[in-house]
Amino acid sequence: MKIDRTRARVASRLLGAAAALLAALLLSPGAARGSGSGTTGMGYGWVDSGGAAPSVAYDWIDVSASGPALTRVSSCDDCVEQAVDIGFDFAFFGVPYRTLGVGANGTLMFGNTTTQWGPGDVPSIFFGSPVMFPFWSDWDPGSRGDVYAHAVDWPGANGQQAFAIEWKGIENWDCDRGTPATWEVILVADGSFAFQYLDASLDDSICNGGRDMTVGIQSNLDCFITYANQQNVIADHSAIRWSPQADACSGLPPTATPSRTPTRTPTRTPTSTPAAATPAAGTPAADATPGPDGAAPTAPVGEVQVPDPDEADPESPGNAASTPGPGAATAAASSTVSATPRAQSTVAALTKSAKDKSAASREAAPEDDGGLPWMPIGGMALALLALGGAGAAGYYQLYRRRP
User: Fold this and answer.
1) Sequence ranges of the domains in the chain
2) What's the rounded Cα separation, in Å, for the pair 134 and 182?
């Protein structure tokens, strides 16, 4: 019965108000209606026919003259005509669609569909897929009116393909004492679309001019535009034209000035100059110049490198796992030794002396036999001796006091 439907609508409105309040607190606001046009940053810009310049022309086309009505959505309340063929790929929020769902309550749905009646706030949690709200309310085509969807030759399409959906003479549940309403949506192959209103007044103070309707579009809970929500701003013989914009919501890449990608400048890898090879004993260095008497020249003392004793003795403890320090390569690259037989003999003597000292130090070091050190043992003995003496003295004093 209609009284039950009215009670259900009241409960739904209260639930919708609570959901709207929650959405207002948690979600970013969409674009509200402006005066004549709007650049929203939400995927689309719009221009209407009632505001100041720029403006768009109202160019009504009678879709009902192009063919029969949609059977299901024209014969019932709160239902959807599924998979209506558009005839071309229509991009909505950057995603191309070939079919759509036509709702009895004044909605066009791309993807999943719902029979949810309106009006309500946008974004709406009742729609899980992109949706258009040309005139979302609680309409009843089953009681009065029909819905049509056909390809049209619309002058506003500028020669491109167009597809139109018309809700003609539809009765509203809240405004059944008024006149029916007629409106349409025209989809153009370039991704633009238009909402047009032949009769939006309904001759009813509750529903007049959109008081009980929602107008807007929605991709998801972050990308949406509210043109009007239960406001008396929709006039008879009016139009709203929507055009896609390149931004995050539209799915189209924003236009940006290409930036120059920085290139890494290759860094020079330092190369180490290898030390001059040491010639065999008794052989003059290649760069050595013989002296006046023909003898090999003596290398300057500052150019003789004395090796470390541990490095000279491969059997020395800790030398097997030795690792060159950070400056080892630099030191090797910067030191050049001019070796001569006399210098070699000096190095050999110094190396032998270092070995002898190392061996002597190893022999002098006491070996650890694994026993306990004598200091802790002595301390323990003294502690035990003191404890025994104290016990004996105590026993002696106790014995003397006995009768």
Assistant:
1) 30-244
2) 11
